[in-house]
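go over this:
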Amino acid sequence: MYATRLPSYVQDEQGILSAEEINNAYADMLAKYQKDTGNLDIAIEHVDACLKLAAASCIDMLATYFANNDNSTISSDSVDHGSKADSYRRIANGYRSQYNAVVINDNKSSAYGKPVALPKRQRLR
């Protein structure tokens, strides 16, 4: 249903990823969402985070593709501080973090990750 709305990183590299790989990433995301929330359908407020989780799987495939095809020559004119594969891995990790922040934290108790004021102890006299 939402598989056509994956982020631009996935859409830009359609020649590398097959439609089947993208659909499998979407199906895996849906299964994880159902396991994490217990809901069969994606809640409206979780759609973007879920699409980013599916995109993270696709971006991992792109990172693997570019890691295998990186140029191994050293250029004396420029310094490469990161490869395209590393860049894709960072994007995928960021997308997973966003999914966890939105979907996983929405399903935790309200005190999860928040400071709680405990009652003060009374002194014994």
